């Protein structure tokens, strides 16, 4: 009798009734997993590193074009507004990385209270969302620091100076 209660008979393939399915959803250990948007998880993971890469590539391209036209080094940049352009690119990239941090924080706030103990049986999608949100939340400030340090180097060191 107990074995019949634990598993259904082998010949029956009827789905559980709506009441049973509803009670399963209410007691699901990760009910908020469905509310985490994959786009926000992706933005939280890649926005800050992508912004840093964009900042480095754009700043280096602008500086090389302004300081080494036609392969001849100059002592001062040919483009007079080079520092303003580099500052605007750095600010735009910082805003992009900040948006990624906000997206990661939003995802983390959604999934952090699902289960404080991972051994309690958080299902695989819930663990994945929680992990990705945490990686985005911890990684974004590191890349934001890289953005700030790169901007400081680009603004304080002459772009045409020899390293």
From TrEMBL:
Residues 1-32 are annotated as: Disordered. The chain crosses the membrane at residues 39-62, 82-108, 131-157. Residues 19-29 have a biased composition (Basic and acidic residues). The keyword Transmembrane helix applies. Keywords: Membrane, Transmembrane, Transmembrane helix. This is Uncharacterized protein. It comes from Caballeronia choica.
């Amino acid at each position: 009798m107990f074995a019949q209660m634990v598993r259904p008979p082998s010949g029956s393939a009827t789905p559980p009734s709506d009441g049973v399915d509803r009670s399963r959803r209410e007691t699901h250990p990760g009910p908020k997993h469905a509310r985490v948007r994959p786009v926000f998880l992706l933005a939280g993971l890649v926005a800050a590193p992508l912004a840093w890469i964009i900042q480095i590539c754009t700043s280096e391209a602008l500086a090389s074009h302004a300081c080494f036209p036609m392969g001849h080094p100059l002592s001062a940049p040919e483009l007079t507004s080079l520092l303003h352009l580099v500052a605007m690119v750095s600010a735009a990239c910082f805003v992009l990385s900040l948006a990624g941090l906000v997206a990661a924080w939003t995802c983390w706030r959604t999934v952090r209270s699902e289960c404080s103990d991972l051994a309690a049986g958080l299902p695989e999608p819930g663990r994945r969302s929680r992990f990705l949100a945490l990686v985005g939340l911890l990684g974004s400030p590191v890349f934001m620091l890289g953005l700030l340090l790169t901007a400081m180097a680009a603004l304080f060191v002459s772009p045409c100076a020899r390293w």
